[in-house]
Amino acid sequence: MPQMQASILSKIVHTLTKTARLMVGIPDYQTYVVHHQNAHPGEPVMSREDFFRERQARRYGANGGKISRCC
Amino acid sequence: MTELRAKLGWTAIAVLGAASLGIVALSRGETINAIWLVAAAICSYLLANRFYARFIADRVLCIDPERQTPAQRFNDGLDYCPTDKAVLFGHHFAAIAGAGPLVGPVLAAQMGYLPGTLWLIAGVVFAGAVQDLVILWASVRRDGRSLGEMIRSELGEPAGTVSMIGVLVIMVILLAVLALVVVKALAQSPWATFTVAMTIPIAVVMGVYGRYIRPGRIGEMSVIGFALLMLALVFGRHVAEDPSLAPLFNFSGEQLALMLIAYGFIASVLPVWALLAPRDYLSTFLKIGTIVGLALGIFIVLPDLKMPAVTKFIDGSGPVFSGNLFPFLFITIACGAISGFHALIASGTTPKMLDSEANARVIGYGAMLMESFVAIMAIVAASILDPGLYFALNSPAALIGTSPETAATAISGSGFAITPDMLKEAAVNVGETTILSRTGGAPTLAMGMSEILSSAIGGRMLMAFWYHFAILFEALFILTTIDAGTRVARFMIQDLVGTIIPAFGATKSWSANIAATAIAVTAWGYFLYQGVVDPLGGINTLWPLFGISNQMLACIALILGTVILFKMKRERYAWVTITPAVWLGLCTLTAAWQKVFSENPAIGFLSHAGKFEAAFAASKVLAPAKSLADMHRIVLNDYVNTALTALLGALVIAMTCFGIAAIMKALADPDISARETAIVPAE
Fold first, then answer.
1. Following DSSP, what letter does each residue of B606-638 receive, concatenated?
2. Residue B357: pLDDT band by 50, 70, 90 thresholds?
3. Which single residue of B51, B167, B577, B673 could bond B562 by disulfide (Cβ 3.0 to 4.6 Å)?
4. CB atoms B272 and A49 under 8 Å
């Protein structure tokens, strides 16, 4: 039983972390890696740091004036 | 059996909602508890989400879970990425919830809590959440295209250009009015100014940490930033009380406005990692935390509402904003009931991450219900204050003077009894020298929040801390918007001007970028400065302009939704978008008309200009002007505002014509003509 509780708890924490990161425009890195390896096998994958930088720049600057947040 | 239980459950919610609404609407004279407002709102939201939203999703939009979403078709793990419903809900809510739903309802409380509450509930259910859901759905069906692109493809190129100009105008007014809210909260307040100023170095520290020391550790950098922020907040009190430090952070409105303009320019050309991104993290998490905290506070403290249900100011003579309940209440409360800005968000990043059409309802409609709840909390925070105190905070100095004595006399004279001592005590409680004429909503909200939160934690001791925490939270948030918004406005200017002068549109060119940034900053800076020197407080003029522009954009979005429904031959359900569109069209056009042509100088720009021109011709100086040059500037501002308001009205009319033309064409066309992406069935 405690094991199950721990796994539920860790799942909740995991979801909350993902939510918090996506709130500021950073999607899940692991999802990206898995997708990239499946869709483009053999091609280079961005490192965690590069992924972060790319997403950060994309949210504010390089998206051609898209509005990412509201009044 | 479960069906029966569900039926009983929904019936109970309906009964509780109706009873709460009855208590809220019918109580006269006796004070009621805030919980009834909250219960009425929550029950209405639950019912709307279960029945009306489902009707829209299933019958009107024919949501199809079998159909692949852009996230599935273009999955790249980056922009397009199927995302868990709960995670995406958080993302979408964080993107739509801003300062708007906190300010508008506070201002609207001058008419009592009832009109604002009713509009917030009815508005979100039948207009705001409908708009968000319809636009999200439309974008999902079109590869995640933006509002502008959808208008161009469904209503034609000219309509696209018209809406683009509309978005640029709303952007400029939004930035000006939000900057004004910050100025009003920080003027002559060393404590608040110090803490807000400290957010800049704190953000830079976070930025360096997240870029070079521990790249991408958002959690760590946010914790560091938050700790430093709280230190600054606590230390701010010493700054305010230290006679040698306090003057360094004591600025007039004009000084703060110029600083903000300079800040906006510099911040928006810096690399994003240095200032914008880290502060965005901090303000986003602080915002969500504060919203949750405020909700908990209200549930724990269960405060009584001291504001009457309806005040005499529904006749349009109120000090906070001028004009009758119709249309001005519906202009003042924009975000929270319906916000055109959301159409930009709902056609932005969210549609690219939706993992199934089936989740569009809870994200599009549901997140907007949540935003409306935030607005309800803002009304509660404003309404638990003593009404006399509320009007002292929100009336311009031109009406109540600048000393507690004159203010108490003026406000008591208008029927809301308050003594000079009460005003002084209120200022001391929150650690300020004065609370008079702190218009703009933020200080009122901060006052209400400190009342609620200090009742929950800390009592009188922590009241000043909570007040400045609330001011900090709003200012932090608004500064991020100014920074990000100036960048967006720059891109839009480059895009628009670039169609005429291609060199100007080169976003890689430094000179073009600097020039476009300068134009953007000058545009909102002009309105900001005009608002700061306006003796009626500026908010009086600027907030209605913002409301009109935001509702105009909502009207445009709903016209798009209507046209799409006609083009899909689903016109029998088009009333779902036509009803709110017509209502918003009526509100914006009536308000725009009155702002331009009303014979009452407090409302109409032209009659105001006429009054000052006549005095100018007779070489008389009318208060608030101090010289003939001031007089001249006031007249000029009136004409600028007239032109802007007329432009907004013209945009609504133009879009209505484009919409009607597109509908006629769709009716004449025997085929379905909406340009959805072809169906790809889910695997």
1. HHHHHHHHHHHHTTPPPTT--SHHHHHHHHHHH
2. very high
3. B577
4. no
Distance from CA of B484 to the nearest CA of A (A): 7
Which domain covers residue A8, as residue numbers? Answer: 2-64
> Alpha helix (H) ranges present in B414-534?
420-429, 442-456, 463-498, 510-533
Lowest-pLDDT range of B146-160, B296-310, B529-543: B529-543
For the stretch B608-637, pLDDT in tens is 999 999 999 998 888 778 888 888 888 999
Integer angstrom CA distances of residue A49 from B29, B159, B442, B638: 61, 42, 38, 52
- Nearest chain A CA: its distance from B86 CA (Å): 8
Distance CA(B582)–CA(B235), nearest Å, equals 52
Domain-embedded: residue A16? yes
CB contact under 8 A, A24 and B218: yes
Q: Per the domain annotation, does A71 fall within a domain?
A: no
Position B55 pLDDT exceeds 90: yes
Which pairs count as long-range contacts for B323-329, CB under 8 Å and 24+ apart, including other chains?
A: B323/B544, B323/B591, B323/B594, B323/B598, B323/B603, B325/B111, B325/B115, B326/B587, B326/B590, B327/B586, B327/B587, B327/B588, B327/B590, B327/B591, B327/B594, B328/B544, B328/B591, B329/B108, B329/B111, B329/B115, B329/B116, B329/B119
Phi first, then psi: what are they for B83, rounded to 5°?
-125, 140
- The beta-carbon neighbor of A68 closest among B216, B349, B550 is B349
Residue of B nearest to A62 (CA): B507
Torsion of CA B159, A64, B550, B558, to 10 degrees: 50
What is the model's pLDDT at position A61? 67
Whether residue B88 lies within 8 A of chain A, CB to CB, comes out as yes
Q: Which positions in chain A touch B484 (Cβ < 8 Å)?
A: 60, 68-69
A33 interaction partners in chain B (CB closer than 8 Å): 77
B433 Cβ partners below 8 Å, 6+ apart? B188, B427
* CB proximity B84 to A under 8 Å: yes
State the Cα–Cα distance between residues B57 and B391, nearest whole angstrom.
Answer: 43
Q: Which residues of A touch B543 (CB under 8 A)?
A: none
**Is A63's pLDDT higher than 60?**
no
In contact, B89 and B49? CB cutoff 8 Å: no
Nearest Cα of chain B lies from the Cα of A4 at a distance, in angstroms, of 21
The SS3 assignment for A70 reads coil
Interval B395-437: pLDDT, tens? 998 889 999 999 999 999 999 999 999 999 999 999 999 999 9
Res. B352: pLDDT tops 90: yes
Query: How many domains is chain A built from?
Result: 1
* A1 — pLDDT class (breaks 50, 70, 90): low
Structural domain includes residue A69: no
Chain B residue nearest residue A23, CA to CA:
B91
Kindly state whether residue A45 falls inside one of the protein's structural domains: yes
Per-residue pLDDT tens digits for B284-340? 999 999 999 999 999 999 999 999 999 999 999 999 999 999 999 999 998 899 999
Q: Find all residues with CB under 8 Å of B624, minimum gap 6, and list them.
A: B398, B534, B535, B536, B630, B634
This complex has an ipTM of 0.93
- The tens digit of pLDDT for each residue in A16-30 reads 999 999 999 999 999
